[in-house]
What we know:
By secondary structure, the protein is an alpha+beta fold. It is built from 15 helices and 8 strands. It starts with a strand and ends with a helix.
Amino acid sequence: MAQNLIKINYDGEKCAGLYLVDEDFGGKEITKALAPQGRGTFKIVLRQTVLIEGKGKVTSKKTFTKRGTTFLKAIQSVIAERDIHKQGIIDEVKGTTAKRKAEAVKEFVTVDELWEQYYEFRTTSATQGKRQKKWIIKYSVNGKPTGGTAYIMQSAYNGLIKPHIGKKAVMQIKKKDIEDLINKLVNKQGYSPRYVKGVIDILKPMIEWFYDREEIDKRNPAANVSLQFDNKRTVEVAFEDMQKLYKTMLTYKDIKYRNVFIWLASGRRVGEVLSLHTDNIKSDYFTVTAENNKAGVDMIYKISKLMKKAVPKNGYVHTGVKDSSLQLSKASVDRHWRNIKRDSGLFELHIHDLRHLLATELKNGGLPLELRSWVLGHKVAGITGRYERDTREQADLKALAVEFFMLKMLSKISKETKWDDFKNS
């Protein structure tokens, strides 16, 4: 059965010899006004006639399939390949070796363009094994992801990759480019190695997906890039310096970020705080859902008076600066954290170290391991089952432990005060 070829005549584009394969289109020509809207898969046929010395005119037809893109970008991509295809005709007729497919691709697929296609794949396709699981979009407003894995990955891409190598051709990316980017983010821009690991977590599977799709036989430049960091690093801060740090956080000039630091002071992870939605709050308690914590089960915590000031009527508790329907980005929190470090004189402190400081001081204050684990949201051998029955009674006890810590930081009780004495007073 012959294909139904529709001539493409898109204003402003060099569409000579381009045809859309569409069995449902009724007309003979597709213009800008009639062009398909939105993203999709388009089959475009390129017909070319080449005059070759000693051979005469040679006519060739090739079909291109463009997935996960707009109609305009699809035809622009085929137009960009026209000269390459023409040379391929000449090479084939003359018996020369055809251009490698990878060489043709590298001239027009940038990292930004690939990200758009990959994002579409990860948010719409079924699970493709452990490394290509579907990304979840939460609280979508006007088509924008405002939560879930999709939002986290988009934010990481926009902050870590797009400004640096977004315009670079994928086929030109080398291992050294990725290593240089990581070193720049860590050493010059002050990001933590754990956060910068997002560069590898995005680029490695994305490039692998691209190579598989295009049948490119080439080593993935992100495959052997690794980051060295110690998640069990020891944090040593003098008690007086800790007090200065927490007082700096609680009096920070920017109220939006001061509220974030107040929540972080309670021992919550950054991701737990930024993903918190009013749907997870009931009365004076909030739940960190299983998908947003490392323990993998819902955990209940009490909202202190200071924390309560930041809670809106609906939406995310900590909203974006420009768009209040989005959650606040970690990149913006990191920028203000650098101000906190500067003002308190603790330049080497990571934001995650707030949890280590809390854990250390609670241990020094005599809190049992079980309660310290509850406060931090850890799973500990022998008491894991307790998390399955997390109650408001436990949340009250966790809140009291945090209050015990904060009163010490604010010099309201003595450094030497022990937990049992405080609890029974």
